[in-house]
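Issue: ligand-bound run for coenzyme A - logging full I/O for the record.

Environment: standard queue, default settings, no custom constraints.

Inputs:
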Amino acid sequence: MILYGASGHCKSVIDIAESISEEITRIYDDNPKVEAVCHIPVQKFLTEPSNAYEPWIVSIGNNRNRRKIAEKLTQNFGLLIHRTASVSSWSTVGDGTVIMANVVINTCTSIGKHCIINSGAVIEHDCQIEDFAHISPNASLAGGVTVGEGTHIGIGACVLPEIKIGKWVTIGAGAVIIKDVADGAVVVGNPGRIIG
Ligand SMILES: CC(C)(COP(=O)(O)OP(=O)(O)OC[C@H]1O[C@@H](n2cnc3c(N)ncnc32)[C@H](O)[C@@H]1OP(=O)(O)O)[C@@H](O)C(=O)NCCC(=O)NCCS
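Outputs:
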């Protein structure tokens, strides 16, 4: 497997791969500041290599930057699920998504492409998470929650059942979301209040 992006999130992605004995052969970055991450060589991305067989993961934490890179690549994207994660066989996960340690994804949930489901997040039954979303560590989504494209749910946030959260929303760390949230909003606190 090949990674694109050599920052902090890249290390977490390597850790997922190691947990399932998936080999990362190379890492690309637009502006590499390091020669290697976890002993895996980092190369400057100049032109796209032809790699018909090795799947890629865009290992960039920022949702907009991850989308920008994913949309410029023409490669096959892989999927990484940590050995300790529990993903219902009735749920689906899109290509390019990474699922970290101790995540629980309950039944009949759909996770889009190039999402990050971070350590210990719980996504209950019948949720729908759109492409490029990031559910941070220990965040919990109750049943039937919808999360729009590119939305970031902060660390330890809780979302009540059936809530609809729009696209490119930011939910602050520890927020409790009790009402639907419009596209682009920034929401913090308990109960959640809009600050931007
Ligand atoms: C919501 C967030 C993005 C806001 O960042 P910001 O735009 O820089 O906002 P500021 O720090 O200027 O704070 C603006 C106001 O919101 C409040 N605020 C910010 N984050 C808050 C939070 N998580 N909970 C409660 N209040 C919060 C601040 O106290 C401040 O209030 P004031 O205007 O009364 O002083 C950020 O604080 C946050 O929670 N990010 C989540 C990070 C995260 O979970 N990362 C996980 C990576 S794996």
